């Protein structure tokens, strides 16, 4: 009897799945036995077959992330590795598929046929790592422009302002004579050209490649109209930043749409691989700049998974986790309020609802500023805790002339905020907008994403849940203290703009519910340590291995894939950003609708460009 | 019913509008409301207008607020070492800085050529600084702190935006004024208001003196 | 004492004697030209229409500045225009990437004069924390002229307002008398900033001569290398 129980415990569903995979594809699938790694390595020839089997038979139907790693100069031999994280929508850990290809002629089969959600991610891998995907429908650069030289994320590719492979740079101390990077570049700019390049008879490919093959999909017959291709953005009042869409129109109906991005591609990953692990924390703030606290948490979760591989590791204290949840849930409310405001901005209400949202945002930001020191770029979480404890009072000091001093008791402020102010703001938003005729007319039935499509396109967060999939990382693969907290995963079933709007209201209410449970925990744990182990370390030792940490961000599932080789810097640092991958489904949602609806549909996905382009 | 949404929306706006005037009446139409009303208008009870009239009134920054870093030096009227750097040029801030915007030249003794614990030069490129606060967080000597002065706009960046040691240095008194609680906490951790090294030196001297007096007696 | 005072007043009324430096702030109009300047600048200064043009993180602080708490409208800047034709001020709020600098230069060229540029945040000024990145322009002023720089990452809304007040002061200092400060009243159309080209890396057409020189240098260096290589192998 006891033996039976033990057996049941040792074979987890994941183990079982890997065993079945090995049995089915003997020879083509082997376990990844590198230290600190997990998952299986698949023979490239069998990749599509294995992926189909994993999706249909094993039930890992959700592709969370697909990314490439360059193992240049590592003991296994120089190769590029493509890593796929697949999940079961019932919850549980990932089944990781990996496949390897030599660096010289890097070619792999495309998985777009199995998971359409891999589309943009494979294009990104081509753009930045130079892996060709055989069978990809539209293998073009996605973040850089067509014609750019080289594949920047390869380890041997160096940029114009390259100084050293890893930080900290030696030139800063002890002989740190200041200089600007411009002074070391012949052009005084952040540029390098292939030897012998001149402008004399050069023709740029960047725009040409874009327009030449805009597909002309759906055929509209009820009116004789011309097909036109329209470029929306990157400067457009409704594109939430520098996002661009190339839209093929038949009259006013959209027949094809191609998102063009990279206008805010800030090389987060390249810089992240040069940074030390801790250096990356403030950079994550700038990914989704509405939700810096949640970005911090996702990264902390990922690196803490890596730390847990080592021998000595203190998990974060209970108070630290409670503070983290407090911050993250406040961020969720803040983001959803502002997202609704922007959605209304897109639907033509201009700034009015946003103004009301921003008042509440300012009140939350006041709290963030007092606790972490900055309104937006909080840089608050550390590996093993948080940077500072909550202050006793939210107090401001006057150093400049005419400063007006505020002074509130922190817990009192939080109680008033959570119990009174924010619920009222949510109710006001609800009263103001939910039954408004303009909104119901423009939102209901527009931009529908079906349940099957949402899963296939790897949609995440409110977009996925509004399509009837109750998948929330906080429940599916719990982190922090979410298992102890009571809340429901909000879900809606129509998958249109209106449901994506309503689900944000639902989620805010659930966040309030969580926050109300966190408040007594904060009271109880007052004075307890907010950081586990030794604080004050700027270069913690991170054991070698890989980790994929994910967190349920307001915009969807934010994942960090971090590979450590045991040194000070991450070997690979990849961000699975929800906004980027949610955009894969944009064309699917927009086809057949009028051009004016695109703006609303885009607003309902709630993207933020810092995260789309990284 | 068509139109109800618009009416309701206008109602919300009207409510805010009326609340604004109610508050104005309450504070007697004074252009800038008195200090005691400020936390109310800028706090959770705010119902009506929410505006801070920036150049005339400013929201004070919280203690932990971080903008560009500055270097703490001893007060200029310090009896022993006026204007002396607290920085020992250990280089931890330069290593912890994510965008690597700190440049330090370690000070050397001109006679012996050996390093001395003070920076010869210290630069911060504020065009690169990301205000993350790591330098202040990891400084073991409480020598670099995040400033609260955000009014740094300029017409020219080439000359004004690399801060040198002189531009960065601010008195310890200033740090006490912008962050009284934290300055006190740090002083407690150090064991006194002075720099760590001075305190250590004093302790040593006191011990030596005690020993001398002991042996003398 | 009284004597010198009288002399001073006499001097003050004399049209040829310039107003002493310390007194200038107390005297509003010292000449007809100044009168025109002050009226003209007063109008322009208090109706700067910024372009609704957000790039990155700083754009959110810009929106916060435009919203009710900080309220740009108090400075006559409430009308955020989406079209460059209707805007006076371009607030470059956020990281400028190489891909984005092309549209930015185009937008700048489309703005009607007089036009101003405010670089908001470390990234727009000099590349900021992302300066080292391969797709980041290390300062928008390498492509278009910038009037005011607002450092910070991100600058708080109050810091941005301070920058905008600096902008107003700058406009106040412009004068018909000084053609350099108002170049748009010169003869002929103003020169456009050449739009950069997206080549193997971003190319500024103004640097074409540099490119040619570098290319020639690279070729001759390569030739020298092969020549020396041959010489080595010959030995």
Record keyword descriptors for this entry:
heterotrimer; A: 614 residues; alpha+beta; Beta Polymerase, domain 2; Cytochrome-c3 Hydrogenase, chain B; five-stranded mixed β-sheet; three-stranded antiparallel β-sheet; 18 strands; 16% strand; C: 235 residues; mainly alpha; Rossmann fold; 3 domains; three-stranded parallel β-sheet; two-stranded antiparallel ribbon; 7 helices; 5 strands
Structure description:
The complex is a heterotrimer of chains A (614), B (217) and C (235). With 614 residues, chain A is of the alpha+beta class. Chain A has 2 domains: 13-134, Beta Polymerase, domain 2; 268-397 and 404-530 and 546-613, Cytochrome-c3 Hydrogenase, chain B (Orthogonal Bundle). In chain A, 38% of the residues lie in helices and 16% in strands. Chain A is built from 20 helices and 18 strands. Chain A has a 5-stranded mixed β-sheet. A 3-stranded antiparallel β-sheet of chain A has the order 8-9-10. The longest helix of chain A is centred in the middle third of the chain and has 32 residues, at 318-349. The termini of chain A are far apart. Mean pLDDT of chain A is 87; it is low at 1-7. Chain B has 2 domains: 1-59, no CATH class; 69-202, Alpha-Beta Plaits. With 217 residues, chain B is of the alpha+beta class. Chain B starts with a helix and ends with a helix. The model of chain B has no long low-confidence stretch (mean pLDDT 86). Chain B contains 8 helices and 8 strands, in the order H-H-E-E-E-H-E-E-H-E-E-H-E-H-H-H. Chain B is elongated. The model of chain C has no long low-confidence stretch (mean pLDDT 82). With 235 residues, chain C is mainly alpha-helical. In chain C, helix 5 (121-126) links the parallel strand 2 and strand 3. Helices cover 42% and strands 7% of the residues of chain C. Chain C starts with a helix and ends with a helix. In chain C, helix 2 runs antiparallel to helix 6 (157-172) and helix 3 crosses helix 6. Chain C has 3 domains: 2-44, no CATH class; 48-185, Rossmann fold; 204-234. The radius of gyration of chain C is 25 Å and the shape is globular. The chains are: A alpha+beta (614), B alpha+beta (217), C mainly alpha (235). Chains in contact: A-B, A-C, B-C. At the A-B interface, helix 7, helix 10, strand 13, strand 14 and helix 11 of A face helix 1, strand 1, strand 2, helix 3 and strand 4 of B.
């Amino acid at each position: 009897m006891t033996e039976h129980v033990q057996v049941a415990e040792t074979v987890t569903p994941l183990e079982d799945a890997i065993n079945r995979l090995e049995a089915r594809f003997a020879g083509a699938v082997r376990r990844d036995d590198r230290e600190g790694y997990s998952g299986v390595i698949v023979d490239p020839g069998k990749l599509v077959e294995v992926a189909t089997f994993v999706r249909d038979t094993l039930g890992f139907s959700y592709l969370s992330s697909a990314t490439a790693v360059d193992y240049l100069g590592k003991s296994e031999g120089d190769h590029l590795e493509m890593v796929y994280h697949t999940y079961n929508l019932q919850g549980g850990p990932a089944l990781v598929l990996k496949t390897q290809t030599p660096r010289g002629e890097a070619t792999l089969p495309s998985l777009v046929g199995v998971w359409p959600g891999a589309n943009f991610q494979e294009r990104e891998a081509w753009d930045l790592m130079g892996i060709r995907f055989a069978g990809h429908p539209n293998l073009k650069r996605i973040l850089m422009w067509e014609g750019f030289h080289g594949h920047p994320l390869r380890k041997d590719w160096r940029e114009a302002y390259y100084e050293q492979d890893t930080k900290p740079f030696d030139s800063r101390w002890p002989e740190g004579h200041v200089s600007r990077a411009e002074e070391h570049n012949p052009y005084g700019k952040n540029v390098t050209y292939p030897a012998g390049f001149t402008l004399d008879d050069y023709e740029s490919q960047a725009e040409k490649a874009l327009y030449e093959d805009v597909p002309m999909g759906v055929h509209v017959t009820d009116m004789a109209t011309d097909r036109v291709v329209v470029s929306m953005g990157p400067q457009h009042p409704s594109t939430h930043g520098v996002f661009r869409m190339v839209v093929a129109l038949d009259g006013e109906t959209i027949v094809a749409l191609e998102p063009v991005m990279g206008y805010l591609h800030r090389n987060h990953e390249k810089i992240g691989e040069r940074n030390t692990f801790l250096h990356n924390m403030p950079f994550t703030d700038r990914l989704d700049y509405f939700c810096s606290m949640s970005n911090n948490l996702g990264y902390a979760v990922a690196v803490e998974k890596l730390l847990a591989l080592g021998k000595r590791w203190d998990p974060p204290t209970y108070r630290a986790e409670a503070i983290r949840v407090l911050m993250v849930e406040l961020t969720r409310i803040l983001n959803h309020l502002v997202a609704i405001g922007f959605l209304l901005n897109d639907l033509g209400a201009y700034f009015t609802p946003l103004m009301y949202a921003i008042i509440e945002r300012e009140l939350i930001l006041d709290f963030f500023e007092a606790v972490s020191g900055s309104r937006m770029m909080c840089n608050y979480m550390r590996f093993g805790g948080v940077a500072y404890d909550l202050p006793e009072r939210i107090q401001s000091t006057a150093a400049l002339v005419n400063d007006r001093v505020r002074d509130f008791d922190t817990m009192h402020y939080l109680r008033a905020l959570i119990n009174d102010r924010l619920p009222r703001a949510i109710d006001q938003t609800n009263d103001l907008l939910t039954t408004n005729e303009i909104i119901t007319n423009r939102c209901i039935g527009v931009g529908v994403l079906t349940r099957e499509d949402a899963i296939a396109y790897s949609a995440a967060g409110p977009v996925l849940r509004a399509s009837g999939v109750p998948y929330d990382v906080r429940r599916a693969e719990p982190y922090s203290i979410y298992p102890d907290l009571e809340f429901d995963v909000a879900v809606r079933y129509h998958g249109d703009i209106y449901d994506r709007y309503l689900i944000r209201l639902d989620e805010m209410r659930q966040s309030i519910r969580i926050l109300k449970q966190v408040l007594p925990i904060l009271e109880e744990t007052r004075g307890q340590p907010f950081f586990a182990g030794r604080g004050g370390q700027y270069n913690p030792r991170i054991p070698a291995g890989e980790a994929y940490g994910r967190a349920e961000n307001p915009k969807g599932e934010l994942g960090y894939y971090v590979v450590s080789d045991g040194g000070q810097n991450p070997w690979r640092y990849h961000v699975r950003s929800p906004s980027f991958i949610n955009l894969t489904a944009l064309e699917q949602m927009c086809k057949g609708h009028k051009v004016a609806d695109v703006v609303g549909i885009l607003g309902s996905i709630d993207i933020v460009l810092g995260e789309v382009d990284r | 019913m068509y139109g109800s949404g618009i009416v309701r929306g206008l109602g919300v706006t009207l409510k805010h509008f009326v609340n604004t005037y109610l508050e104005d009446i309450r504070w007697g139409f004074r252009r800038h409301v008195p200090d005691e009303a400020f936390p109310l208008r800028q706090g959770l009870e705010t119902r009506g207008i929410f505006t801070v009239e920036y150049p005339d009134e400013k929201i004070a920054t919280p203690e932990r607020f971080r903008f560009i870093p500055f270097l703490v030096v001893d007060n200029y009227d310090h009896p022993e070492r006026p204007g002396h750097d607290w920085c020992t040029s250990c280089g931890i801030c330069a290593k912890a800085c994510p965008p690597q915007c700190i440049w330090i030249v370690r000070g050397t003794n001109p006679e012996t050529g050996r390093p001395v614990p003070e920076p010869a030069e210290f630069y911060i490129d504020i065009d690169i600084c990301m205000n993350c606060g790591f330098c202040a967080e990891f400084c073991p000597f409480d020598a670099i702190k995040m400033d609260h002065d955000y009014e740094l706009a300029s017409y020219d960046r080439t000359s004004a935006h690399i801060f040198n040691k002189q531009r960065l240095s601010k008195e310890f008194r200033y740090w006490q004024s912008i962050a009284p609680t934290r300055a006190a906490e740090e002083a407690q951790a150090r064991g006194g208001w002075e720099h760590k090294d001075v305190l250590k030196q004093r302790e040593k001297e006191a011990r030596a003196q005690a020993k001398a007096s002991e042996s003398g007696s | 004492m009284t004597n010198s005072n009288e002399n001073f007043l006499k001097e003050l009324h004399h049209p040829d004697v310039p107003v002493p430096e310390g007194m200038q702030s107390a005297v509003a109009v010292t000449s007809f030209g100044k009168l025109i300047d002050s009226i003209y600048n007063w109008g322009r200064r208090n109706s700067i229409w910024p372009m609704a043009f957000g790039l990155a993180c700083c754009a959110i602080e810009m929106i916060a500045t435009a919203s009710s708490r900080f309220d740009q409208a108090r400075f006559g800047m409430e009308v955020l225009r989406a079209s460059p034709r209707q805007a006076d001020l371009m607030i470059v709020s956020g990281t400028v990437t190489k891909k984005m600098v092309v549209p930015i230069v185009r937008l700048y060229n489309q703005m009607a004069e007089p036009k101003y540029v405010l670089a908001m945040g470390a990234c727009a000024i000099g590349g900021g924390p992302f300066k080292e990145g391969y797709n980041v322009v290390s300062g928008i002023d390498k492509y278009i002229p910038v009037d005011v720089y607002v450092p910070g990452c991100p600058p708080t809304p109050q810091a941005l307002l301070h920058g905008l007040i600096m902008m107003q002061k700058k406009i106040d200092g412009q004068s018909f008398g000084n053609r350099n400060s108002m170049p748009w009243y010169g003869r002929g159309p103003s020169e456009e900033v050449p739009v950069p080209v997206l080549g193997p890396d971003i190319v500024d057409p103004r640097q074409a001569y540099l490119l040619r020189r570098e290319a020639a240098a690279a070729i001759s260096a390569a030739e020298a290398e092969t020549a020396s290589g041959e010489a080595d192998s010959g030995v």
